[in-house]
Amino acid sequence: MRTIGGVSGLTTNTKAAVDKAVAVIAAATTELLAELPQRGLPAPPEPPERRGIREVPDAS
User: Fold this and answer.
1) pLDDT given at position 23
2) Is the dihedral of CA 2, 5, 6, 7 positive or negative?
3) DSSP string of the chain?
4) How is the chain split into domains, by residue range?
5) Is the distance from CB of 18 to CB of 10 less than 8 angstroms?
6) Is the pTM of this model over 0.85?
C-alpha cells in the first residue's frame, strides 16, 4: 500500500488511511478467493511409486 500511495513510511497522518486500505484489500481478496472455483487437488503426501519397481510377494 505504501508503494501505491507514494508513502515511504507511516506517520500519524498516513497510518489511518493505509490501515483502511489494507482492510479493504484484505476483504476484497477474501471475497475473490471464496468465489473462485476450487483449484486442483493438493499434491499427495508421498511420491508415487516408480514404474517397474514392485514388491515381490513372499513365497512362503
Assistant:
1) 95
2) negative
3) -HHHHT-SS--TTTHHHHHHHHHHHHHHHHHHHHHSPP-SPPPPSSPPPPTT--PPPP--
4) 2-35
5) yes
6) no
Please write the tens of the pLDDT for every residue from 2-57.
567 777 788 888 888 889 989 999 999 999 999 988 878 777 777 666 665 666 66
Q: How far apart are alpha carbons 6 and 14 in whole angstroms?
A: 11
Per the CB < 8 A criterion, the answer to whether 18 and 5 are in contact is yes
Round to whole Å and give the CA distance between 33 and 50.
Answer: 36
